[in-house]
Amino acid sequence: MDSSSECTRVVVCDTDTGAVLKQGYAPHPATGTDVDPQAWLLSLGEAADGGLLEGVQAIGVSAQQNGLLVLDAGGVLVRPAMLGNDKRAQTAAADLVDALGGRPAWAEAVGTVPHAAQAVAKLRWLARSEPDAARRVAEVLQPHDWLVWQLLGRPARRTTDRGAASGTGYWSAATGQYRSDLAELALGHPLRLPEVIAPAEPAGHTPEGLLISAGTGETMAAAFGLGVSLGDAVVSLGASGSVFAVHHTALADPTGTITSYADATGMHLPVVHTLNAVRALRGTAELLGTDLEGLSELALKSTPGSHGLVLLPYLEGERTPHLPHAAGTLSGLRRESMKPEHLARASFEGMLCGLADALDVLRARGVEVRRVFLLGPTAGLPAVQAIAPSVLGAAIVVPEPADYAAIGAARQAAWALGVSHGTLAPHTPPTWPAAASQLFEPGDELAVGQSVRQQFGTVREQTHPDAFTWNPAG
Question: Domain named Carbohydrate kinase FGGY N-terminal: which ranges (predicted)?
């Protein structure tokens, strides 16, 4: 099962082949940033209705990341759950950065720098904004931790996995240990943290005897469901963007550009975020009076380099490179370049060059990238598929739409079940077929893509000199 911020999806998979046999879906009620988590259980029940789970031997749980549930000493919720998209803790995050001595200190301690979404920042916000509630907090869970605990009948043992733990701001992927002092620094008093169990270790069994695996966060589950491995990177195209790759070690980054997550298999998932991806396409489409499909069609009427037009897509400021107060820039305007098709292509090239910059941050730290999985609805646009291989400098894999987070959770459940039966090793997950996908190679266009990137980089340096040599200390 995957419990996202919008819905619950359930897939029932064959243990040996990974084939999806049955699936269910149920929406979550529309809410703000606070939610009664019982709604997630009701949604799960609805998604699994009609005998969907008959014959199931094990369940894996994936869930939205960065949510926070705070419990009192009796295991009762102190307040509604805070969701990952909650931005109230922005000031609290900045306070915590200063409290430990700056961004490099946090990056060294836990591989990530506090931001509003993280549990550690939410705890500081709670201590400052709801002190009466904060004083009652005895332990904390994330959404997948809480769901696993509920499915197991609320046992005394509380568990999580290294993937979800690595996003809290008080667990280090590099050391595999909690920094409970940082959680205490945020909340103001000691608290109980869930036990981090191994990827193939079961969290327990339900009263009916079903095995429940460790579970994990959505990003880690989706990577596992897709079957990404060493040499693979994933570029996620939302309004903002993210680039992550499977790597054998954690990557500490004193600037905080790289967030050092753990994955669901025992490896690592260094992540680089951008603030601008598809929002640049949507903005350009609106300007030209068309939609994304129309923008793609227009872009393909232009040529690589967009007739000299370069769009720096920093519409909301930018995180990579660190330009929090920047605006977008359109450069290279000449009479002959002032045509809709050239602006359309410049928007695609600008978005993809921005993501290539993020990918290069990982490459510069020794992360091998042979293939790039491209995720998100816009990955299917012909302009994206035509431009991405040469600009990103790698073979592009566009998986067919599927519930990859739920499939990853099912694969984890099959792994834990196999280990418990003695048919799988704790360090060898089940081999399921790769996701059905399309493959796009850069081929002879690689040099063309590098020229587009060079043009983009020249404009970026002229507009924002030394953007990628930002010093976190000053």
Answer: 54-215
Given a contact cutoff of 8 angstroms between Cβ atoms, the answer to whether 324 and 295 are in contact is: no
Q: Which residue has the tokens 């931001």?
A: 115
> Contact 190/180 with Cβ under 8 angstroms?
yes
Instruction: Give Cα 380 to chain centroid, integer Å.
Output: 20
Residues in the chain: 474
- Which residue has tokens 């025992």? 266
Model confidence over 8-24: pLDDT tens digits?
999 999 999 999 999 99
Structural domains in the chain, CATH included, are 2-214 (3.30.420.40), 218-399+442-474 (3.30.420.40)
Give the torsion sign (CA, 408, 412, 415, 421). Answer: negative
pLDDT in tens, 439-466: 999 999 999 999 999 999 999 999 999 9
pLDDT of residue 471: 63
Tokens of 113: 């720098």
Strand (E) positions, 321-459?
329-331, 369-375, 395-399, 437-440
H-run or E-run covering 171: strand 171-172
State the pTM of this model. Answer: 0.92
Q: 154 in helix, strand or coil?
A: coil
Of 275, 358, 270, 342, which is closest to residue 306 (Cα–Cα)? 342
The answer to whether the CB of 109 falls within 8 A of the CB of 121 is no
153: left (phi over 0), alpha (psi -120 to 50) or beta: left
Half-sphere exposure of 10 (CA within 13 A, CB side): 24
* Token pair of 61 as six digits: 């749980």
DSSP 8-state assignment for residue 80:
P
Q: Which of 363, 374, 337 is nearest to 455 (CA)?
A: 337
